[in-house]
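Priority: medium. Attachment 1 of 2:
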């Protein structure tokens, strides 16, 4: 494996964030912890597809709802852009909002090397980047979404910054549920399964809680935690 080359390093309100190139790929490091890279992306894409499939399965008895409009999607975390690019490539989605609090990451997409992944998606009129903290957006907005696909950390049991952990608390999950339409889907990416988080989702009033494993190129499988807001 080739040695990484640092392309940009910035200190922000949430700590240090670094963009590195390793061979043909790029990787993002936050506070010294590896977050993600461009070497695979299958689990980030599956996060989007699993949410749509769960939403569609729950709407089989409500065909009018699915045909009247394309479902709206909120992606928590821009990352290297795989989730956004995959969602925008699917004409079945309607509006696609991406919440990203790290200014450096947005810059790396708009005027940096990560634009090779996200460029067409960012040019799509359905897409918008919201430059703010996810929890702040969930608290302040009156918008509701048919799906929330969240990938802001390494998962419920392994957060890079302490404030991210509040997303997985009863209060954070209540915010997620409030921002979903009836029957809407919450999908949360994680580097490992969490039985405790499954229990937290059920305790927060979600239905159909399940965890899907996604095999990746190296290491243990990633997972997507899925839950449905009551209709």
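Attachment 2 of 2:
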């Amino acid at each position: 494996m080739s040695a990484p080359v640092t392309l940009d390093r910035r200190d922000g309100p949430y700590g240090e964030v670094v963009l590195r190139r390793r061979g043909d790929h790029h990787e993002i490091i936050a506070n010294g912890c590896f977050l993600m890279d461009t070497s695979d992306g299958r689990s980030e894409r599956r996060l989007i597809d699993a949410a749509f499939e769960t939403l569609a399965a729950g709407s089989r008895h409500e065909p009018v709802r699915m045909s009247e409009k394309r479902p709206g999607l909120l992606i928590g975390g821009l990352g290297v852009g795989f989730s956004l690019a995959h969602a925008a490539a699917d004409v079945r989605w309607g509006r696609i909002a991406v919440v990203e609090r790290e200014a450096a990451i947005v810059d790396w997409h708009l005027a940096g090397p990560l634009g090779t992944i996200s460029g067409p998606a960012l040019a799509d009129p359905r897409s918008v980047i919201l430059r703010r903290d996810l929890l702040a957006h969930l608290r302040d907005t009156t918008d509701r979404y048919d799906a929330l696909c969240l990938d802001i950390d390494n998962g419920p049991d392994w957060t890079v910054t302490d404030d991210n952990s509040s997303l997985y608390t009863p209060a954070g999950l209540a915010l997620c549920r409030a921002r979903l339409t009836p029957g809407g889907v919450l999908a949360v990416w994680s580097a490992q399964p969490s039985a405790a988080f499954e229990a937290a989702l059920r305790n927060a009033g979600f239905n159909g809680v399940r965890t899907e494993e996604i095999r990746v190129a190296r290491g243990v499988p990633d997972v997507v935690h899925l839950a449905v807001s009551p209709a």
